[in-house]
Specification:
Elements (H helix, E strand, L loop, with lengths): L8 E5 L6 E6 L3 H20 L2 H17 L1 H12 L3 H21 L6 E3 L6 E9 L2 E5 L7 H13 L2 E5 L5 H14 L6 E3 L6 H10 L5 E5 L2 H10 L6 E5 L4 E5 L5 H13 L9 E7 L3 H13 L19 H16 L3 E4 L18 E4 L16 E7 L2 H9 L6 E5 L3 H10 L4 E4 L18 E2 L12 E9 L2
Helix pairs in contact: 1-7, 2-4, 2-5, 2-6, 3-4, 3-6, 4-5, 9-10
Bound molecules: adenosine-5'-diphosphate.
Length: 471
């Protein structure tokens, strides 16, 4: 792997203080085309290696990630802002996909299908789709990449990666480890870009040499990529935005629900696609839950992710801060009450970074923007409900369907609600749902396809039927 030269550069900045981290080549369509051709050349040999050979390489890469865990974590904290503890967690989570897919590489099972014709046997084999365009976001700069690369490389695809322009360093560091693990040239190609993002994306979608697009990011961009991929009929896999509900029923263990709320809302300062956007709390326990959540949130300390006393780092950029601020202002203008936080930079240790304090809002109503728009920030918004029917209707009243959470000690209610929530992933009495062994993905406008798990291989493979005459 090499990073190609480009005429222009842009710089990524540390979100904790706005200071430049490094300059990167601002590549365009020409460099993207060269990367696609390199991936195409490499794919033939890569796809002909055995699953065991590809798996062994992924395993070496996994080992190198674990050996270099702290360096990778520092890079993530530097360019994304999350705390070093969270960044270390991300590295472990990222590496788990290489470990998982290093094993799955050997298990790309096809099927033997009973034939309707006595003289034939039918076998369905699975083959890699070819070159894949991979576009990743800044919120998990390492994990979103390994979740896609692990599966794509395991089955024999090669990739052209366009990392987010806020966080290119994590992708480059990760791929340097890939090079040390012995990854052949052309199997992973990185296109760093800033000003040419749209053209690079369009070129990946429209190229006849790219067989699939795997994207994680906003719903708007996902829809655009889907449209741009239509003319070449690509296999498209999309992990898009969410608007996760978190329901606390009257029979819930409130302390556990508060723990779950902290994990599902405030991890990465709420900047994850499975972060809770709307808390629905039964009217009989609303006050107790709100008070306990408020107490916990007031103890958070916002600051640089490198400061060990920091519990929550900055948001990724000023645009993110503006969006969070506008959601809070809109809610307050419509009658919401600030129970904790709510003032820009009030509890930040640095005044130059992109900070917004973790906030709890009470008295939320359906006419507020947060009820329907994803905030992507550290705001816990509490709505009140009275009946199961009412809360299910409210929770499902969105075009998004990625994740949902609820807390209840009634087992029959647990099964019932888990089935009726219109999402791809449900956390039942837990705020943590991501794992390399479980298929990650959404329904409705939250996406197409699944990542991680056995199902993650499906996005990068196609079936081919062999009919053999046996008489
Ligand atoms: P966010 O708003 O969270 O940054 P985006 O969807 O804009 O989410 O970004 C996710 C990824 O998509 C990033 O790598 C970004 O550079 C890329 N991206 C943004 N716009 C486009 C586009 N028009 N075509 C291709 N990629 C894009």
């Amino acid at each position: 792997m090499r990073v190609l030269d480009a005429e222009c550069e842009w710089e990524a900045r540390d979100p904790a203080n706005g200071v430049e981290i490094a300059k990167f080549p601002d590549m365009g369509v020409d460099e993207t085309e060269r990367a696609i051709q390199a991936a195409k050349r490499a794919q033939r040999e890569w796809s002909q290696a055995t699953g065991r050979e590809r798996g062994t390489l992924l395993r070496k890469w996994f080992n190198l990630m674990i050996e270099n865990e702290q360096d990778l974590a520092k890079i993530i904290t530097w360019e994304n802002g999350k705390t070093l503890t969270e960044a270390t967690g991300e590295v472990k989570y990222s590496a788990s996909f290489f470990e998982w897919f290093s094993e799955e590489a050997k298990r790309l099972y096809g099927e033997v299908i009973p034939s309707p014709n006595k003289s034939q046997r039918m076998i369905a084999i699975r083959q890699p789709i070819g070159v894949v365009g991979v576009i990743t976001p800044w919120n998990f700069p390492c994990a979103m990449l390994t979740r896609k690369l692990g599966a794509a490389l395991a089955v024999g695809c090669t990739v052209v990666v366009k990392p987010a322009s806020e966080t290119p360093l994590s992708a480059l560091a990760l791929c340097e480890l890939g090079r040390r693990a012995g990854l052949p040239d052309g199997v992973v190609n990185i296109v760093t870009t800033h000003d040419h993002t749209k053209e690079v994306g369009k070129h990946l979608c429209e190229s006849v040499d790219v067989a699939g697009i795997s994207f994680t990011g906003s719903t708007g961009v996902g829809k655009l990529l889907l449209k741009q991929s239509a003319d070449t009929v690509k296999k498209v896999s999309l992990e898009l935005g969410g608007n996760a509900p978190f329901i606390v029923f009257d029979d819930a263990d409130i302390d556990k629900a508060v723990d779950g709320a902290i994990a599902a809302k405030f991890r990465a300062s709420g900047q994850t696609c499975i972060s809770v956007n709307r808390f629905y709390v039964h009217s009989s326990i609303r006050e107790e839950f709100s008070e306990k959540l408020r107490e916990r949130v007031k103890r958070f300390r916002v600051g640089s992710g490198f400061d060990l006393a920091t519990t929550h780092g900055p948001l990724v950029n000023q645009k993110a801060v503006e969006k969070v601020r506008s959601h809070v202002e809109d809610a307050v203008a419509h009658g919401a009450k600030i129970l904790a936080g709510g003032h820009d930079k009030a509890s930040a240790s640095s005044t130059d970074g992109y900070f917004y304090p973790p906030t709890v809002l009470g008295g939320m109503k359906n006419n507020m923007r947060i009820a329907s728009e994803e905030t992507f920030g550290p705001i816990a918004s509490i709505f009140e409900f009275n009946t199961e029917e009412e809360v299910l209707a409210a929770a499902n009243n969105t075009r998004f369907g990625l994740s949902g959470y609820f807390f209840s000690r009634d087992i029959s209610r647990c099964w019932r609600i888990a089935e009726k929530l219109e999402v791809g992933m449900v956390g039942v009495n837990t705020g943590v749902i991501s794992s390399e062994v479980a298929p990650f993905g959404g329904i409705k406008e939250s996406g197409i396809g699944r990542e991680g798990a056995r199902q993650g291989l499906d996005e990068f493979t196609q079936y081919k039927i062999d009919k053999d005459c046996v008489h």
